[in-house]
Amino acid sequence: MEADAEPEEEPWELKLERALLSRLAPAPDDDEEEEEDAQIIAPNEEDRSAQLDELMALKSIFGDDLRGPAAAVAASMCAGDDDDETIGAFRFDLTIRLDREPRRIDVRIDGAPAATVVYPPPVALHAIFPRDYPSASPPLLALTASWLPPEATEAACDTMAAMWTPGAPAVFEMAGWLAESSVDECFAPGGVLNLEGCNLLQGGRKGGPRGGTECAARTTTLRGVCTSRDAQEALFRLLRHDAVEKERQFAVRTHRCGVCLEDDVLGADFVRLCKPRCDHRFCARCVTSQATLMVRDGTVGLLVCPEPGCGAPPDPEVLRSVLSPEDYARWERLTLERSLDAMSDLVYCPRCEAPVIEDGDGDHCGRCASCMFAFCSLCRESWHPGETCLTPERRLRVLESRRLGDAAMGDDARRRHREQVADAMAQRYIDREGKQCPRCNTGVVKSEGCNKMTCGGCGCFFCYKCGKEVFGYEHFREGDCSLFDLDAIAAWEREMNAAFVVQENRNRDAHVRGGEVRQTRCPKCRQPNWKLERNNHVLCWSCNQHFCCACMRVVRRGQETRDHYGTGPGKCRQHSAD
């Protein structure tokens, strides 16, 4: 014989409804069924008036969070319809959003730490007003939550039951306690929330093959239900609500942007450039400006999180939202090229420009799968096994002679030839005058300054003398490399001395003419300077910055100078006596 089919599990909503209705007190007269129903349905006028007043107060405070059959009655009463034609007990559901100050809640499963949240999800209060509430009977209550074990919700029901006193409505007070104090007193005392016991009610599986008396008693006294199947699902709902609420709270408040340093930027105008790798946020205007500038300059390797010490790469979807379609397409192309260029064994076919992987035997041979051309990856010519590859100087001479000897070259061939010549000239210049970045092989030539270089392609710091990647300045203190070359220091000193002599001559000439001379200091480099003949616009001899001697602010040449000086409000006079 086939085994009996397993009965379908009743939904927890049906079990909760049955438990609430089973706790309604029967009428005192059991002789006639009609008289019993009438007594259960019809409360006295004072109780009915108190119930309606409390429903209207709940509706006015909680709004759409009040649902169920009684919510429509409360809505009509709040709208001015005083005719209550409803008979029977009031049944309603109320969503309680836990209004509490943000505070850490440590979530544990089986005693082990699982997560930390700040904003717990709401709970649902299910209630029925008996016919003699509030004069003689308390309200019938039950709680449901997706993140609380039944023991916690039942403890909260016990606390709320103790708030009722005969003759006084208490559900409004209970709702306030749930919103303000229930987390600290019942749900997560001491800031610790245990998810043990978070599982959906299994009504027909306890107490015997069909549920038995234990399940029937449990359903009859049911007051707390966890709507999650297990502790892991409860944890997932906790984390999801916490993340959504943090985003909402951040969006409605003002914050300080770490780039433009504005203090009153609304959170909704901030952008997480590098989610989910980091949580740093900056205003959309700064992120858009920075991303657009770096993409158009081609320095996509420097497009990282602006937070100091972070350096997380940007999220493509965020870039898509802040960049124009043309700039985003350029970013994708440049990023792909940088990724391919970072592969030491990848080269491009000199004929069709298709990416090619070098053979692994070290002979620098590339075989293009598109045009079947075998070439040398060093000189980009046909593969020449056993021969020494061309030097940059020799290769440049070969390219020039090829151009002079081929007058029938087409436009596309001429373009590609010019590109090859430019590449060869750039490579020769780098080999003679500069260094290559140790990370991405970008050519760098130092014009002046110290030996700590910053690659414009990938942002790598490296030593210009030995070519090694460096972090900080320890390399120049401990090794053989110096931060400044002696000839660079001597050149700088000669330049500064010459500039100082020129400034001294201008001061002497002003004295000879009888002009007014007053000493001041540059607001940028703090070197001594002189205001000559009542002119407040001073050029610093040391850092070559123009500044205003009246307000001691740096004033750049051009439009900024014209806007700074004048006779209007907020402007400085360019010529004034001390």
TrEMBL record:
Residues 28-38 have a biased composition (Acidic residues). Keywords: Metal-binding, Repeat, Transferase, Ubl conjugation pathway, Zinc, Zinc-finger. One of its GO terms (molecular function) is zinc ion binding. InterPro entries: E3_UB_ligase_RBR, IBR_dom, RWD_dom, TRIAD_supradom, UBQ-conjugating_enzyme/RWD, Znf_RING, Znf_RING/FYVE/PHD, Znf_RING_CS. It catalyses: [E2 ubiquitin-conjugating enzyme]-S-ubiquitinyl-L-cysteine + [acceptor protein]-L-lysine = [E2 ubiquitin-conjugating enzyme]-L-cysteine + [acceptor protein]-N(6)-ubiquitinyl-L-lysine. Its EC number is 2.3.2.31. The keyword Metal-binding applies. Residues 253-485 form the RING-type domain. Belongs to the RBR family. Ariadne subfamily. This is RBR-type E3 ubiquitin transferase. It comes from Micromonas commoda (strain RCC299 / NOUM17 / CCMP2709) (Picoplanktonic green alga). The lineage of its organism: Eukaryota, Viridiplantae, Chlorophyta, Mamiellophyceae, Mamiellales.
